[in-house]
Amino acid sequence: MKLVFATNNRNKLKEIQSLLPESIELVSLEDINCIEDIPETSPTIEENAIQKAMYVKKHYGYDCFADDTGLEIEALNNEPGVFSARYVGEAKDANANMDKVLDKLATHNNRKARFKTVIALFINNEIKTFTGICEGQITEKRQGEKGFGYDPIFMPNGYTQTFAQISLTEKNKIGHRGKATLQLIDFLK
Ligand code: IMP
Asked: Does the pTM exceed 0.90?
């Protein structure tokens, strides 16, 4: 069975393929000649993931899974949430996004935040969703060079280092995306 992972990231694809039975062949967007930007215009992380998976099914006919992730900060009414990539604008500038978060939190004591990943799977004419959450705190300033996005200002609960200071293996073990992916793999097995 061919299953599309709505990504062009070969590393992510390989990683998940290695955890799936051989009967499932994972293919990327490029493999099915989907080169356009898939619309992500929904109001929630969950609906965005569903929108992407349904788009592939509708336009290309393949069963598919897609993921969407956001950072939810309690004191900011769960901002940036679904706007995490574009918090400051369409330039999707990670540094500007982090500055905006730090500025907005300057007057708050509550720095609780969580990363949320939703994977939506469209299979056998049904949608299933898998959610992974990682709870933590927004730090006062950037720490660490690893990772991407908001990693330098997110410290997972139980840690004294940010996501940008721990190894990718460690991040995958405790992180939002890793947790959602494990549920997907369990389901597909
Ligand atoms: P996407 O849905 O995976 O494209 O994520 C949307 C945005 O959320 C990204 O552009 C990043 O700003 C942020 N983001 C997602 N995952 C992570 C993460 O693991 N660490 C830090 N930021 C992330």
From this structure: yes
Residue 12 predicted with pLDDT over 90? no
| Cα 118 to Cα 140: distance, rounded to the nearest angstrom | 27
Residue nearest to atom 14 of ligand 1 (CA): 149
> What is the pLDDT, as a whole number, of residue 8?
87
Q: Per-residue confidence at 51, pLDDT binned at 50, 70, 90?
A: very high
Q: Which of 150, 159, 170 to mutate to test the pocket of ligand 1 (most atoms within 8 A of CB)?
A: 150
Q: Residue 181: CB within 6 Å of ligand 1? A: no
